Amino acid sequence: MAKKNKMKPRELREAQKKARQLKAAEINNNAAPAIAAMPAAEVIAPVAEKKKSSVKAAGMKSILVSENKMYITSFGKGNSAVLEYEVDNNDYNQTQLSFKGSSNIELRGVNEVNITFSSKHGFESGVEINTSNPTHRSGESSPVRWDMLGLKSELEKRFFGKTFDDNIHIQLIYNILDIEKILAVYVTNIVYALNNMLGVKGSESHDDFIGYLSTNNIYDVFIDPDNSSLSDDKKANVRKSLSKFNVLLKTKRLGYFGLEEPKTKDTRVSQAYKKRVYHMLAIVGQIRQCVFHDKSGAKRFDLYSFINNIYPEYRDTLDYLVDERFDSINKGFIQGNKVNISLLINMMKGFEADDIIRLYYDFIVLKSQKNLGFSIKKLREKMLEEYGFRFKDKQYDSVRSKMYKLMDFLLFCNYYRNDVVAGEALVRKLRFSMTDDEKEGIYADEAEKLWGKFRNDFENIADHMNGDVIKELGKADMDFDEKILDSEKKNASDLLYFSKMIYMLTYFLDGKEINDLLTTLISKFDNIKEFLKIMKSSAVDVECELTAGYKLFNDSQRITNELFIVKNIASMRKPAASAKLTMFRDALTILGIDDNITDDRISEILKLKEKGKGIHGLRNFITNNVIESSRFVYLIKYANAQKIREVAKNEKVVMFVLGGIPDTQIERYYKSCVEFPDMNSSLEAKRSELARMIKNIRFDDFKNVKQQAKGRENVAKERAKAVIGLYLTVMYLLVKNLVNVNARYVIAIHCLERDFGLYKEIIPELASKNLKNDYRILSQTLCELCDDRDESPNLFLKKNKRLRKCVEVDINNADSNMTRKYRNCIAHLTVVRELKEYIGDIRTVDSYFSIYHYVMQRCITKREDDTKQEEKIKYEDDLLKNHGYTKDFVKALNSPFGYNIPRFKNLSIEQLFDRNEYLTEK
To answer: What distance separates the 2 farthest-apart alpha carbons in the chain?
Structure first.
């Protein structure tokens, strides 16, 4: 056995210093440039930005520690982990676990501070790269680095029933906790949006109707609680919820989510629809209870199992929703795609026709091309950009979508069937790339190779892209039986109920939200699957028996695959036709018409009840450019049409949002929106003119627009479309960024609830406490344990007396009523609701953080009947005097999060909060 290479004290200090420098350099390389905060004159074009650490780019995936062993893994195919080396932590003896053909990295050396390795492929192959030894920290050696919150053991007991001397179980746990955090954000937003839909006559409901729904009752009890065995108090609560449920149905605003009550005289059909809607809302409410409150131990609040333990009628609704979607996709697939299928059968001579149909179903429905690890679309774009000039000709405009779809399918088949190895090599190259520029170069090189292979096929496709050929193929009979797809088609029985539940949530999300949620969930379940695989491997072989509430994760591989399917079949639903009058009202209101306008007057203006050719130009214009805009739908979900119009009159706010839109985009907006544009004017002047146009937007500006316009009238129509598009974009960016800011605090509340439950298990002083009575109690108790007996398990507070004293000051500057109201404002997105009331009072608008906290602080200090604390009055005076948020007030309100100092600082200090750029127009 090799002798342990014990370092001398001076060598150890030097090695520690070098490790800190390497870490700092890596952090700086990964930090997003604060361009948005720089004066305009100082903004310069950034150099190619480093997007990932050199360690990840070189192929190292993770370093796992179990007792006296360390296991080093690399990236395998997709997100899989390859066990590369086992290292003895006592003498740093190393054993290679990977086979020669699967190995991606070479370990060069290990000592107390650093691990040195090199990549065998791609990124600086052979060059030595250093990363820190996870068993070492501040000169002390231990199998696992310090657990700063002191909750590692409690988390392991909750998830696995016992504690472990390793860092493997806790990494798996953190992936599960990430799932709960992302669900907390999206479910909170869904609940707010649904409650917001109750708003009538320009005012949103302040009651959390959806948040208090649960799956405790069947539908028959919900609609008739008086004939149930519920207590009188519960009957009263159900009656209140039923009343709001009926109001929500009458608003027709559920139509924004594509939910539409059937037009039928059959009451059974109508009741079945209402029953499904109730089930959907109740499940959302139940998930909200699971992720926003720590109720561990209560079986009906187990996020991952409650859906299997509730009344069967709820699961029947999930089955219905999923089957309805699959049926709409599967029904007549071959007949619906026969033109493309016929073309492909004629072109792909090496494939059987049945095989082509199955592959095309895979491509269109299951979208397996999105799971390849690279973008087929980007490859095709690179090919046409460099070599396919003829395909950009205007003659293909009407068939461009069909032509590109067929080209993408050929590329998909190449990597999915013909040349799998080439696809894996491309994934590896992209993984080794450090910047976006490097990725672009890799795609360009691959496109060059593909052009020689597919040039003739692409030209063949283009030759068939004319109306006569397509029309003839459309008339031809397809001599294929739909049954050949039976083995490919999916239905509800193929999915676990957890996956069906996630699909149901997508009903209430837009396309970007669906993509973000599903991408995150897939990544986390994929990681968990890999951790379980490593834990069960013969080399590592550690216990991984999950407790009852988390057994679902034993099926992480299956759920990963199912969520891929959910991601591919879920989409933002088109607004329901039955809600059109409500939508027209919202559309006219957001364009500045009086919100008190009657339904009859709306019908008269838009000629909704009239029939005839050429008379519905305005109606169609509003439909195409407002109602069908995803940004309009988002604004109605999260805001209020009349209040959005009022906020848009604030030029300071609009100028701030326009400042975040790239200059090139501003140039395009200015040219298309302004009737007589002065393209030589400064960008500041152009933004100012656009802000003026948004401020003064009126419905009368558009009422004479003609849908079927020519000449000057068409120019006027296109300009009107551009103005509406700009207006909706600016207001969308404002609201969306404030929702995103709020999401950070939602996560903090979620973690506070969870951590309070964990700390109660190890701190006797918390056993009898209720977080709802005082949200400061956790931070306060942990600080007191440091001061009194130095017994706090929290190392953030224990090891940093100066910051602990700062947290204590912030705790004392708040009170229980203040922090309780703050928590509720976060949970109910009050800042978005009250934006119009206070945003006009802000003196300087320079960040979404400052907007959020000014409006939040005005909401917190709002005069009410309750007795106000002297400190609260002081804060209110400061707000009214300075017309901007108070930094000390932010810290006081965030004092409940003080037990986690990094989170507390990131949420309280604007410069730290704003390190990542906000959403901008791309």
So the answer is: 93
Tell me the C-alpha distance between 879 and 858, whole Å: 7
- Token code pair at residue 42: 């100082």
Residue entry with tokens 């953080």: 849
Residues 234, 236, 240: CA angle, nearest 5 degrees: 115
- Distance separating alpha carbons of residues 827 and 288, to the nearest angstrom: 10
Residues with pLDDT less than 50, the chain? 1-5, 20-21, 23-50, 138-142, 200-206, 917, 922
Q: Of 760, 754, 812, 751, nearest to 782 (Cα)?
A: 760
Distance CA 195, CA 829 (A): 11
Phi, psi (5° rounding) for residue 130?
A: -105, 140
Q: How far is CA 233 from CA 217, 220, 237, 723, in A?
A: 14, 18, 6, 53
Query: Residues 228-281: pLDDT tens digits?
Result: 999 999 999 899 999 999 999 988 889 999 898 888 888 899 999 999 999 999
In the block, residue with structure tokens 């019908």: 603
- Hey, what amino acid is at 783? C
Beta bridge partners of 81: 75
Query: Which stretches within 435-579 are classed as H helix?
Result: 436-463, 467-475, 497-505, 511-536, 556-569
Model pLDDT for residues 18-38, shown as the tens digit of each residue: 554 454 444 334 333 332 332
Distance of CA 623 to the CA centre of its chain: 28
The sheet with strand 60-66 has its strands ordered as 60-66, 69-75, 81-88, 94-96
For the record, the structure tokens of 189 come out as 């937003």
Sign of CA dihedral 853, 854, 855, 861: positive
Phi, psi for 4 (deg, rounded to 5): -65, 130
273, 656, 668, 669, 670 from 677: Cα distances, Å: 52, 21, 11, 10, 7
CB 597 within 8 Å of CB 545? no
Upper half-sphere CA count for residue 138 (Cβ side, 13 Å)? 3
DSSP 465: -
From residue 356, alpha-carbon distances to 349, 375, 489, 564 in Å are 10, 21, 15, 22
State the pairing for strand pair 69-75/81-88: antiparallel
**Contacts of 73 by beta carbon, 8 Å cutoff, 6+ apart:** 60, 61, 62, 63, 64, 81, 82, 83, 84, 534
Tokens of 869: 């604390």
Nearest 5°: the CA angle 279, 283, 285 is 120
**772 HSE (CA, 13 A, CB side):** 3
Q: Which helix (H) or strand (E) holds 572?
A: none
Q: Which single residue is written with the structure tokens 């009903």?
A: 507
AA letter at 904 = F
Q: How does DSSP classify residue 45?
A: P
Burial of 246 by CB count in 10 Å (0-12 exposed, 13-18 middle, 19+ buried)? exposed
